[in-house]
Amino acid sequence: MDRALGDSLSGPSLVSWNLTRHCNLRCPHCYLDAAAIPGAGELSAEEAVRVVDQLADLSPGAMLVFSGGEPLLRADLPSLVRQAAGRGLAPVLGTNGTLLDEVTLRDLADRGLAGVGVSLDSPEPGYHDAFRGKTGAWRQAMGAMEACRRLEMPFQIHTSLTRENRDCLYSMAELSARLGAMAFNLFFLVCTGRGERLTDIAPQEYEQALANLADLQGSFPEIKLRARCAPQFTRILAERGGPGSEVPAGCMAGHAYLRLSPEGKVTPCPYLPLEVGDLRRQSLFGIWRDSPLLQELREGRWQGRCGDCSFAAHCQGCRARAYALSGDYLGEDPWCTYDSANGSDARSVGRLSWQDDARRRMERAPAFIRERAMAHIEAYARERGCREVTVEILEEVRSSRPSSWSRLPFRH
User: Fold this and answer.
1) Which of 202, 298, 314, 357 has the highest local Cβ count within 10 Å?
2) Rounded to whole angstroms, how far apart are CA atoms 216 and 225?
3) pLDDT reported for residue 193
4) If residue 189 lies in a helix (H) or strand (E), which one and from where to where?
5) Does 69 sit behind a cis peptide bond, omega within 30 degrees of 0 on the bond before it?
């Protein structure tokens, strides 16, 4: 592996891999423009294994999301799950749920699958089936989640927000909690792929939806409510504060997150369709280290309102939405309504110092969960008036959240 330079550069903690363009549904918002047959030029089984090995070398402990299309239509998915788990990665599945029965799930679990994300866009079958283009899709997705629950496989619910289902947030959060999901993830449309033909919600509706989601967290403390492709959620949660508040990461594209296409192309995220490398011609480490575009994203020299915003270091704006609507991935996020000159001070969400022993324990946590866990722990410490995170603070957090924090190395 070509680590002659840049050894100190950390790899991505999260990688989304569209294994195939093949899909059994035809969703109108699909950024990949998936099709009823596999696309030409997709990575072979042998090439895919090499990609897994490169990622394991670059980012030990990273979460690897196998997505599509529909990843269950790719025959070598089980062997890729086993390879990823065997190399110390955390392989998870992003699926529409229509093909995930208990037999299939048990096989994937035996090979090391760590979790499942199932798309569900409404608490009622009618809207979901129409949106996904298949009668019975809702029932099958529900069956997939029931299988996860029976096999004790951690799962999340993924919902794409539109004007038609924006009034269903409470019902979706309630359903997620009732089914035993770990999280309810609300995805905000970025107009790319087939989604270019859809009309995004207005900026004021976007802000209101984020506010509603933040307000709902107090009603459903047993699950996490998250906003995807909406880094302004960072600001909204920080402004609310309060007991148990956790400030999530903002836009991760290019500095903690990468996306791989079925053909081996690399982009900063699934919704920012700018290629930064080709795994058939370059190593993953070389792409991560040398790409000028990725370096620009890491430098964070945003333009317009994002450049002037006091929350820029934490939120960063959605780089994909800035590009989709203006052609400038460093430009301001046009869907953000925040006025930094009259808003809150972002210094309140700055990082705390860490005791050496406490930091060493956190360094043993899986890479994909470490940053968010640290943010939660710091929020917990800040609420108690602490200016430093200590081992005692870690023990208190572990005691208060024993089930959901079982993967963290709080003890020696």
Assistant:
1) 314
2) 8
3) 46
4) none
5) yes
Percent composition of the chain: helix, strand, coil (DSSP 3-state, to 5): 40, 15, 45
User: What pLDDT, on a 0 to 100 scale, did the predictor assign at position 82?
Assistant: 98
Decide: residue 412, CB within 10 A, 0-12 exposed, 13-18 middle, 19+ buried: exposed
| CA separation for the pair 18, 261 (Å, rounded) | 5
- Residue 9 phi/psi, 5-degree rounding, is -75, 115
Query: How crowded is residue 5: how many other Cβ atoms within 10 Å of its Cβ?
Result: 10
- State residue 7's pLDDT score: 46
Unique residue bearing structure tokens 């939806």:
209
pLDDT at 244: 42
Report the C-alpha gap between 321 and 203 in whole angstroms: 12
**Tokens 């959060």 found at:** 173
Task: List beta partners, residue 278.
Answer: 265
- pTM strictly above 0.90: no
d(CA 360, CA 412): 10
The DSSP bridge pattern shows strands 90-95 and 63-67 to be parallel
SS3 of 277, please? strand
H helix runs in 241-311, sequence order: 284-290, 292-299, 304-308
Give me the residues of the chain with pLDDT under 70, please.
1-8, 29-37, 191-200, 241-248, 341-351, 366-372, 375, 400-412
Kind of pairing between the strands at 265-267 and 224-228? unpaired
Residues 6+ apart with CB under 8 A from 383: 243, 245
Other CB atoms within a 10 A radius of the CB of residue 345 amount to: 12
**Helix, coil or strand: residue 311:** coil
Residue 342: partners with Cβ closer than 8 Å, 6 or more residues away? none
224-228 sheet: strands from edge to edge: 224-228, 183-188, 155-161, 115-119, 90-95, 63-67, 14-18, 257-260, 265-267, 277-278
CB-based contacts of 227, cutoff 8 Å, min separation 6? 185, 186, 188, 210, 213, 233
Tell me the pLDDT tens digit for each residue of 348-402.
445 578 888 888 888 777 665 666 677 678 777 877 878 889 999 988 887 765 4
Q: For residue 128, which of 145, 112, 151 has the smallest C-alpha distance?
A: 145
The three-state DSSP-derived secondary structure of 291-307 is CHHHHHHHHCCCCHHHH
State residue 281 phi and psi, 5-degree precision: -125, -15
